[in-house]
Structures are given as C-alpha cells and as structure tokens.
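Q: I'm a student working through a structural biology exercise. My instructor gave each of us a protein and asked us to get a predicted structure, then write a short paragraph describing it. Mine is Putative dehydrogenase. I'm not confident about reading structure output yet, so if you can add a plain explanation after the tokens, that would really help. Here is the sequence I was given:
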Amino acid sequence: MSDGHAIRVGLIGYGVAGRVFHAPFLAADPAFELAAVVTSQADRLAADHPGAIAVADVEALLAHPGLDLVVVASPTPLHVAHATAAIDAGIATVVDKPFSPDAASGRALIERADAAGVPFTVFQNRRWDGDFVTLRRLVAEGALGDVRRFESRFEWWMPSAGDSWKATTAAGDGGGVLLDLGAHLIDQALLLFGPAAVAHAEVRNRRGGAAEDDVFVVLDHVCGTTSHLWMSAVAPLSGPRFRTLGSLGGFLSWGLDPQEDQLGAGMQPGDPRLGVAGTTARLGTDAHHDGLPLEPGDYADFYRRLAESLRGGSPLPVDPRDSLAVLELIDTIHTWNRK
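A: Happy to help. First, here is the predicted structure for Putative dehydrogenase. I'll explain a few features afterward.
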C-alpha cells in the first residue's frame, strides 16, 4: 500500500463502539478515509462524518469499491460472522474486543486470516489507558521491584440489568461482564506479567439477567505475580482502579481513564485535554510516598500503529493471539463456574 494513499475504511456498526471509539479516530487521522458505514442512522452519520456513506448491511459494505480495511464494531455475538465475511473478501480486518465469544471460534478466525494472508488485529483500546501506560512503564523500569500482587478493577453501580444486549445475551453468545470487562482486565494483566493460570473464580448473576454481572478472578502468573481482578456492574462503592504491590514499593490509582467519557461527551481527537486524568496516583510506601501524575491516555495510537503496519509491514498494534489467550482464560473461568 502506497504511503500517499489514504487507507479506505468500511466500519460495521455505528452504536457506541463505532460512533465513539472508532469513527472519531479514523476521521482525525490523515492516514485513513472513513468511506462507508453499516448503520440505520444515516442522518446522524451524515452530520458526524459527511464524507462517509451509510449502507444497509455487511454485504453492501463489502461491495463498496476500494476498501483497504474493515473495522468490526457490531455487538459481540456478530463479531465472528462479520470478521469472517471481511477476511473472505481479502480485506484487512480490525475487530473490537472481545473478538469472539469463545476461544474455539476465535482460534478459527485467526487461522482463517493467516491462511488468507489477511492482516487481522483486535481493538484492545485499554492498553492505551493513561493509568495503565504509567503502570506498565513503572513495571518495565523495575520501580516497584518484584511485583508480588496486582489488583485491577472495573466496577460501577447499575442495580437494574436494563435491556441492553450485553445484559440480555447469555455468556455463551457474548454477553456478561466477564467477556465485556474481563477482555480488558485479563489482557492488561497478561501484558504486564505474562502467561497465567486461573487459581480461583467467583462468577455471579446478582440482577437476574441473562449473564453474569459480578465477577472476581485470581490468576497465578508463571513469573510469580498473583493478579486479583474485579469486574462488576453492582458495586455501590468502587475500589482503587489499580493497586500494585512490589518488593520495593507500590502503585495506587483511582478512577477510570477519562477518554471514554470525554469522547462520549463529544471531545474530539486532537484536543489537548483528551486522555488527561484529573487525578494523580500514589507511588512508594505508606511511610514514604509521592503523588505521581498519570501519563495521558492515547487510544489514537492504535490506529497510528495500524497505519504503519498496513503501509510498511511493522507489527500489528495487537497480536490477535494475545486476545486469544484472554479468551482461553475466560473459557476456563466459565467452566470453573459450572463446577
């Protein structure tokens, strides 16, 4: 692909994922051209991105001339079917996380892309959260010493299940917080500390919906670190986002990276406030600690890296086998819950 040629993109889905997490970054990056979007919201798309056309379905999208990339931002139960169609059309493909509801179908999708020679990657955007980027740097620098325990949480208070597809879809079809939030938390833990096995899991359905809404997982990493991961929609008081304990000191941070809320409120990529947290972390010990500013989050870096990969052959921003390792652990956790 020539460096002077904008990468023409077809986007499948214009719900929250497509409208908030993908379209703004594609539109803001000169390496890409948002050409066509599968959506029934043609008027909204025209107002947001007048250069893109709305199409009725995936078949119409794949018939659109000159596409170089397809981004799958449809609900999880549709990911495999939509990604398969894009791969079979010979078009480079990005799938929002989790890219499959289970490891078997995820593995088959990776093998299909490999056999076809089609670039395939997964949008694990939380790798570019500012708090995680900060912690990853500290771990790599050895600032905490040997990390013995890693705690990570995505928690909020939503006591009624509601009627969203995530709450009304069974876990086996892609619903529930373990796939939705665990796809982030487990990916981050593996990225920090490497391969792990499930040591304990509590998977609960507190609200009576179709899938779990309250999960606690313990992972034992080969390196010796233990990860404690919480994901819950029914936490009236949330704990620290990260609490990391090492032989030399600890890291403690609160609150979620601000990019999702900022993008949802209409802030655009390129705004210097995007990704800048209003809180600081704590680094050190109870007796001697310092406030530590968090590095800005940068979801746009996923697409910058993707453009470099498609144009120059550099590594894809996320190896899909990393995401497959996450799904394998999630499958184990679901099996653990049925014991």
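A: Here are two points you could use in your paragraph. The longest strand covers residues 147-155. The chain has twelve helices and 14 strands. It's a good idea to check both against the output above yourself.
Q: Great, thank you!
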